[in-house]
Hints:
Elements: H1 2-5, H2 9-22, H3 27-53, H4 60-81, E1 86-90, H5 97-108, E2 111-114, H6 115-123, H7 142-161, E3 166-169, H8 175-187, E4 192-198, H9 201-214, H10 223-232, E5 243-246, H11 254-266
Parallel strand pairs: 1-3, 1-4, 2-3, 4-5
Helix pairs in contact: 3-4, 4-5, 4-11, 5-11, 6-7, 7-8
Amino acid sequence: MxxxxxxRSDLAILLRDEWCRQLAEDPGTIAPLLGFxxxxxxxxxxxxxxxxxxDPAAPAATRAAAATDARRYFALALGxxxxxxxxxxxxxxGVGKSTLARRLAAACRGRQLRSDVVRKExxxxxxxxxxxxxxxxxxxAPQHDRATYARLLDLARTELAxxxxxxxxxxxxRRADRDAFRQLAASLHxxxxxxxxxxxxxxxxxxxxxxxARGDDPSDxxxxxxxxxxxxxxxxAVEEGAxxxxxxxxxxxxxxxxxxxxxxxxxxxxx
Length: 271
């Protein structure tokens, strides 16, 4: 559980397998028991940090850090309950897709597939190299869009087939792309959760300006492209059943909300 919390699920798996080997146990037979205790310990850690977060005698910085850790532990506990699933982010540049995708993937011990990184890998460009081109031109022309989503689809297929959760971190501005990934999930009998992220225009512009000023992010999204992207963006229709997430304010419970939805519809809490 501690390794999962620190983002090293790969080491957690190695430790589990070696432990089973030393005990001459089949990992498949011990997994349910181990999963229960991982969930239990994550919940206990979250509860203890929750108490600290509400302790008036603790310094403000300590309480704030404890509150953050408590939310992460509770999200991890939910993630232990969740079945392998496909999550799709959907929204304009700067809306917070990558932040949510990273946190969600960590809670599910799954993989974040980021379109910004995959697009540049396909083009042989370093992920943090800025590519400033007009909207839908150059590296962002339609043919590169198609190649990027095709590669994301292949990568997602591999992870889902291996029984892992996947968070595809992309704009998903076209319904055809969303449908293709939903069909993939259905073919592998995995749940698919579409997440439509939105925030107010002022916050969106401020985030884009801050990210561009840092110059260390794989995304090339910037304020100058926002209007063009908004015009070409096809929001999810009602029948697509997207979860609507307002990211205008820092809402640390988005991961818990998404996992709670998954569990109620496809997991342990399903009625």
